[in-house]
Amino acid sequence: MARIGTKIQAGDVVAITGAGSGLGRALSITLGYRGARIHVSDINPDSVEATATLVREAGGEALTSVVDTRDADAVQAMCDATYSRWGRCDMVVNNAGVGAGGEIGVAPLEDWKFVIDINLNGVLYGCRSFAPKMKADGSGTIVNIASIAAFARAPMMGAYNVSKAAVVALSETLRAECRPHGVGVTVVCPSFFRTNIGKSSRAAGQLANTDISKLVDNSKVSAESVALAILRSAEAGEPYVVPMADAKVMWYLRRLAPGSANALLARGAKLMMKRGGGGKKKRKGAS
Question: In this structure, how many other beta carbons lie within 10 angstroms of the beta carbon of residue 135?
Answer without folding.
Answer: 16
